[in-house]
Design brief:
Blueprint: E1 2-4, E2 7-10, E3 15-18, E4 21-23, H1 27-38, E5 44-45, H2 46-53, H3 61-75, E6 82-85, E7 89-92, E8 95-97, H4 102-105, E9 111-112, H5 132-144, E10 147-151, H6 158-168, E11 175-180, H7 190-197, E12 200-201, H8 209-216, E13 221-226, H9 232-245, E14 250-255, E15 264-268, H10 281-284, H11 288-300, H12 308-320, H13 325-338, H14 340-345, H15 350-353, H16 368-376, H17 381-390, E16 397-398, H18 399-406, H19 413-425, E17 430-434, E18 437-441, H20 444-456, H21 460-473
Parallel strand pairs: 10-14, 10-15, 11-13, 13-14
Antiparallel strand pairs: 1-2, 1-8, 2-3, 3-4, 5-7, 6-7, 9-12, 16-18, 17-18
Helix pairs in contact: 1-3, 5-6, 11-12, 11-13, 17-19, 17-20, 18-19
Length: 489
């Protein structure tokens, strides 16, 4: 009999027991558990699981995830004994014979691998395009600040930039460790995910900030925390705790909003450069967004060679997609099926057309709408309401205009002002100075999403009507900052 937490496993009977009571487990799930047990605590890759559990069958990765989830549900409080190693596979820890007590098995303190790899940074599969200056800027920022956060809207390329920075810094640190926080389902598992990436052997219950601090010591370490937005409070707290005790530690985080710690330097990741409408065809190739779009199209069709007419259309695609790399990637995937001309014609239906994400990409990067849905879930009700009402602005606007349009019975001017700050922080509202005031605008894709939300809320006609009335009368109303709030009815 083998004991996993409180659950006993009988390999002979292919049965699980909890306090002597048999648990119902599927055949495939038990096969997976048996492979993990036989690995004796070592990592089992996803490929190895597929080969051993489904030797002659092609199955989707989601099938494996379903069975892993079922096993964790059976383990209950001990579900974290099955560890997910991001991008690699799974590992079963603290598995021991039933004759060994749980106290004895947990007596040893968490420890680091004796010879951990110098880095776990994934190999570069695609070139970093148009980010040469950004790369230099972020590396320079890490020289002067212990924590640098790459902030930007979804699909802007924060992860790829962060990974390239990490690769460039491998020779400068004793170790470089990459932590993919997007796979963390619960905020309280954030610390455990970081410990796992560092090679710290411990369950989630055993992992504490003190253990992590002790394990890292004074090492010259670069820690890359990717996709912090859904665990942002935990990530911010951990970063402060680690940096306060180790002056040799550097942390590079990526997030759709700043961590807002005392030690943070923020680097806003901008879209790629797009050509203006009046740029000559021979100059369009000089823009990074165009360069990326063509490169990703040629990756699917090596014979793709745009003529001058196609280059003009590609410039249009890049402008309308705001130079956002994920949007360009999804658009390039449609070229072979639709052609450049038809792709341009379909951009008004971008959420229906731009859906061909990489099969191996996270769900939030499979479609353009999914990327915005991921960002939207972190908005409070007030921010979501203001965002959809701002969709009526076709260009830039200032705070007074936003308040005049978005405020109504359910929102005050102060509420709108607070929501504007939140939308800027969460990278859904672009900003920049316009004289002594701040100017705001929505990326075209974000605006299309906001208008879709406005229609779903049944507010399109009312908000559009007020916006048209405001546009006609604002000159006579004086300072827009003093304009009355919109009233609906």
């Amino acid at each position: 009999m083998i004991k996993i937490g409180r659950v006993d496993v009988s390999p002979e009977l292919r049965q699980l027991y909890l306090e002597g009571r048999p648990l119902r487990v599927g055949a495939r799930a038990f096969d997976i558990l048996e492979v993990l047990i036989n690995a004796s605590g070592r990592l089992v890759s996803k490929e190895a699981l597929f080969q051993q559990v489904w030797p002659e069958t092609v199955v989707e990765e989601s099938n494996l995830q379903v069975h892993i989830s079922a096993l964790r549900k059976l383990l209950g409080e001990d579900k974290d004994l099955i560890k997910t190693i991001p991008g690699r596979g799974y590992r079963l820890i603290r598995t021991h014979d039933a004759g060994t007590s749980t106290d004895e098995a947990s007596a040893d303190p968490p420890r680091l691998d004796e010879r951990p790899a110098a880095h776990n940074v994934p190999h570069c599969c695609t070139p970093l395009i148009g980010r040469e200056q950004a790369l230099a800027d972020v590396i320079a920022a890490l020289d002067s600040a212990p924590l640098v956060t790459l902030v930007g809207t979804g699909g802007i390329g924060k992860t790829q930039l962060g990974l390239e920075v990490a690769r460039c810094q491998i020779a400068s640190f004793e170790a470089v460790r990459f932590v993919n926080l997007s796979v963390v389902e619960h905020p309280e598992a954030t610390l455990s995910a970081i410990a796992e990436a560092l090679g710290l052997h411990a369950t989630q219950a055993e992992t504490t900030p003190e253990h992590l601090i002790q394990a890292i010591g004074a090492r010259e370490l670069l820690l890359v925390l990717d996709n912090c937005e859904h665990v942002i409070q935990e990530a911010a707290t951990i970063c402060e705790q680690l940096i306060e005790v180790n002056p040799n530690l550097r942390i590079l985080a990526t997030s759709r909003e700043p961590l807002r710690t005392r030690i943070e330097q923020i680097y806003w990741v901008a879209p790629l450069e797009v050509p203006r409408e009046d740029v000559a065809p021979e100059d369009i190739l000089n823009y990074s967004a165009v360069h990326m779009f063509i490169a990703r199209t040629r990756a699917r069709d090596p014979h793709f060679r745009p003529d001058s007419e196609s280059l003009n259309l590609i410039g249009t695609i890049c402008r309308r997609l705001d130079g956002v790399p994920l949007a360009l990637e999804l658009a390039a995937a449609r070229v072979t099926a639709l052609g450049i001309g038809e792709l341009v014609a379909q951009l008004d239906n971008r959420f229906r057309v731009l859906t061909g994400g990489l099969r191996t990409a996270p769900a939030r990067q499979q479609t353009l709408k999914a990327a915005l849905d991921w960002s939207s879930q972190f908005l409070c009700k007030r921010e979501r309401t203001v965002l959809r009402r701002l969709g009526v602005f076709r260009g830039s606007f200032h705070l007074g205009e936003a308040c005049a349009i978005a405020a109504c019975e359910d929102l005050s001017v102060d509420d709108v002002t607070e929501a504007i700050a939140g939308l800027v922080s969460k990278s859904l509202l672009m900003f920049g100075p316009r004289g002594s005031a701040m100017s705001y605008h929505l990326l075209e894709t974000t605006r299309a999403y906001a208008l879709q939300m406005l229609a779903e809320a049944g507010e399109s006609e009312t908000v559009e009507r007020w916006h048209e009335h405001y546009a006609r009368t604002r000159g006579a109303a004086g300072d827009a900052m003093d304009a009355p709030a919109a009233r609906y009815g």
